[in-house]
């Protein structure tokens, strides 16, 4: 049954401070020197990206994220709040940080420079209570997310879970509880030659709907009922590929909240992906935030 446009969405997962480094090619695994074409410091994290695009689409969204009491954590919270995202922060000894090596073709190697400290039982209970009170729970891959889905599998009540499996290969152990607890699953085709078979294997574990993004080739969706849908990618001059999948997820979810059919949800996702692809940031709203800026032009 479709939810109303004012449905409350809780997003739980990573928000990070990222250093994007543009190279003409990804480094070979041998000692050598390369010159960067440009670099950029900005908000990152799959959950931050989803929350930014949901807020852009007018969805009542709250991001639940672990941030350190440091300058990077403050920058993230300030940038998201300025973009219209309600942020509920939970204490961490450090803020998550990445260095992403990028190429103009969209290739990426993500180096994790810092990850959040282990969450306390009290903080996990606070998140679980907040997520359970939402109409839709977006639970991304993370330690806190793992605790939430394990609780759901153990019988805890709560909102339907949407989860993003990213480059799931169909068998990764860490993804399994997220998959089994979810109502809707998203993934990309990086680890499969047969997205339809991968989506069906996901549906066999319980979700009602699976969506697989195919990069420049668009996206496909498969429902437990057997309904199939496909969409071509929207034409766009790509500035940066970071966050395109999260934007697609947000566009699809926002459309579903008002009862849009499967083809329409895919089309909405493709349109929203253009917003991320056209910006050096996860969302253009981040561009003016303190600390988010270009050291050398990425183009």
Explain briefly what this protein structure is.
By secondary structure, the protein is an alpha/beta fold. It has helices spanning 46-56, 71-82, 121-132, 143-153, 176-181, 195-203, 244-257, 262-277; strands at 8-12, 16-22, 38-44, 60-68, 86-92, 97-102, 108-114, 136-139, 161-164, 184-188, 209-213, 219-223, 228-231, 293-296.
Could you list some keywords that capture this structure?
alpha/beta, 299 residues
Tell me what you see in this structure.
The chain has 299 residues and is α/β, with parallel strands linked by helices. Helices cover 30% and strands 26% of the residues. The chain is built from eight helices and 14 strands. The chain has helices spanning 46-56, 71-82, 121-132, 143-153, 176-181, 195-203, 244-257, 262-277, and strands at 8-12, 16-22, 38-44, 60-68, 86-92, 97-102, 108-114, 136-139, 161-164, 184-188, 209-213, 219-223, 228-231, 293-296. A nine-stranded mixed β-sheet has the order 5-4-1-8-9-10-11-12-13, sandwiched between helices. A five-stranded mixed β-sheet has the order 7-6-2-3-14. Strand 10 (184-188), helix 6 (195-203) and strand 11 (209-213) form a beta-alpha-beta unit. Helix 1 (46-56) packs across helix 7 (244-257).
Please give the structural blueprint:
Layout: E1 8-12, E2 16-22, E3 38-44, H1 46-56, E4 60-68, H2 71-82, E5 86-92, E6 97-102, E7 108-114, H3 121-132, E8 136-139, H4 143-153, E9 161-164, H5 176-181, E10 184-188, H6 195-203, E11 209-213, E12 219-223, E13 228-231, H7 244-257, H8 262-277, E14 293-296
Parallel strand pairs: 1-4, 1-8, 2-6, 4-5, 8-9, 9-10, 10-11
Antiparallel strand pairs: 2-3, 3-14, 6-7, 11-12, 12-13
């Amino acid at each position: 049954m479709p939810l109303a446009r004012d449905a409350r969405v809780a997003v739980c997962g990573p928000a990070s401070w990222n250093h994007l480094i543009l190279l003409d090619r990804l480094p070979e695994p041998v000692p050598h020197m390369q010159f960067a074409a440009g670099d950029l410091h900005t908000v990152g994290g799959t959950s931050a990206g989803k929350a930014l695009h949901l807020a852009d689409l007018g969805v009542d969204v709250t991001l639940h994220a672990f941030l350190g009491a440091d300058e990077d954590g403050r920058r993230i919270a300030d940038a998201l709040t300025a973009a219209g995202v309600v942020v509920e922060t939970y204490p961490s000894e450090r803020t998550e940080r990445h260095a992403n090596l990028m190429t103009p073709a969209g290739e990426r190697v993500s180096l994790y420079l810092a990850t959040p400290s282990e969450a306390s039982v009290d903080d996990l209970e606070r998140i679980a209570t907040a997520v359970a009170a939402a109409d839709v729970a977006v639970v991304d891959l993370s330690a806190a997310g793992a605790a939430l889905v394990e609780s759901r599998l153990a019988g805890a009540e709560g909102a339907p879970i949407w989860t993003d499996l990213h480059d799931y290969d169909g068998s990764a152990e860490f993804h399994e509880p997220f998959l089994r607890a979810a109502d809707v699953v998203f993934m990309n085709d990086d680890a499969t030659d047969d997205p339809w078979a991968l989506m069906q294997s996901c549906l066999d574990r319980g979700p009602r709907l699976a969506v697989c993004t195919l990069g420049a080739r668009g996206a496909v969706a498969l429902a437990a009922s057997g309904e199939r849908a496909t969409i071509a990618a929207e034409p766009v001059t790509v500035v940066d590929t970071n966050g395109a999948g999260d934007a697609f997820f947000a566009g699809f979810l926002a459309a579903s909240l008002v009862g849009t059919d499967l083809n329409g949800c895919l089309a909405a996702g493709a349109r929203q992906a253009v917003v991320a692809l056209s910006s050096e940031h996860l969302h253009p709203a981040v561009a003016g935030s303190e600390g988010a800026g270009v050291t050398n032009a990425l183009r």
